[in-house]
Amino acid sequence: MPMISVNEERRTHWAILNGWRKLWREAVRAAATHMALPGDAWGDPRRAGRERVRIEAELRFAPPRRDRDVANYHATTKPIIDGLVSWGLIPNDTPAHLDGPHLRFGPDLAPMSQAIAGLVTLTITDLGRARP
User: Fold this and answer.
1) Does pTM surpass 0.70?
2) Is the Cβ–Cβ distance between 118 and 59 less than 8 Å?
3) Which domains can be identified in the chain, with CATH numbers?
4) In 7, 26, 72, 131, which residue has its Cα 20 to 30 A from 42's Cα atom?
5) CA separation (Å) from 77 to 22, 31, 55, 67, 124?
6) pLDDT tens column, 46-57
């Protein structure tokens, strides 16, 4: 699934965008399941979510790397955050429960990985109680 920039979001048909967003949400759910993140949406009280978290997203691209604006990639991180909310990691994505997402670019992917257009790595930090 592609990394969606704000520019691509403006140029792409809404139905295609919805498909990409759905793929991101499903990928997040699969990763959350695999990593046993707290907040399993199946209602297991031993896996309760968090009240407030900080999310940092590192975006990496295959070379050659052209000039990119990190703020343009909030269009990619929004469905990722939505997937974490639907998983139950946090109640919702308002500032009371979410600090971020904070985006940054990481190093280019290895040249051998050109079959991969990009990679998103999340760092999730538990911040404790929800902000009033």
Assistant:
1) yes
2) yes
3) 6-128 (3.30.1330.70)
4) 131
5) 12, 15, 10, 19, 13
6) 566 888 999 999
